[in-house]
Amino acid sequence: MSGYFYLTLAGQDYIRKDVGETMKFVFGLLVGFALGVAAGLILAPQSGEATRAQLNEQGIMLRDRSSGLTNEIRARPARSNF
Q1: How many structural domains comprise the chain?
Q2: What pLDDT does residue 31 have?
Q3: Is residue 74 part of a domain?
Q4: Which of 4, 10, 23, 50 could form a disulfide with 46 if both were Cys (CB 3.0 to 4.6 A apart)?
């Protein structure tokens, strides 16, 4: 069985698949991702400019929400009574 890796951890033997098979899988994931992005762009219900504006708006909202959460988390240890 050349091309396979054998690994022993805590007395258990594990067989790892060939690196070539893993690369095929990763390549398939990347191709699928690219096709999904392309289909999303082609079938988008609004223009690219409107989509970018919407994404920018949502990014600003997420930034504001996350900074508020960060401040809240930082304030928690100061309020705890340990």
Answers
A1: 1
A2: 96
A3: yes
A4: 50
